[in-house]
Amino acid sequence: MDETSEAAVARENFHRALVVSFQTRRGVGDVEAAAAHFCQALRKLGVPPERMLIDAKAVIHAAIDGDDASLAEKAVTSCIQHYFRP
User: Is there a smaller number of Cβ atoms within 10 Å at the N or the C end of the chain?
Assistant: First the structure.
């Protein structure tokens, strides 16, 4: 799997984890893991942090559409932390 495909799979997994967490009010650990994979895949592709944040927020918006501010905030924080984690 090439890096672009890996990023697409990571994006879909992140979206799916957010939807499940939003619907069940559980699975925050799954969101954390999916966010880590998504953001690390973008970093590997050389995506700058500003673009990663825009992409992450787009996934979050598509998954939960602003209906869970707490989950959205946790997801954004997780993305930032994992993007910059060595």
Answer: C
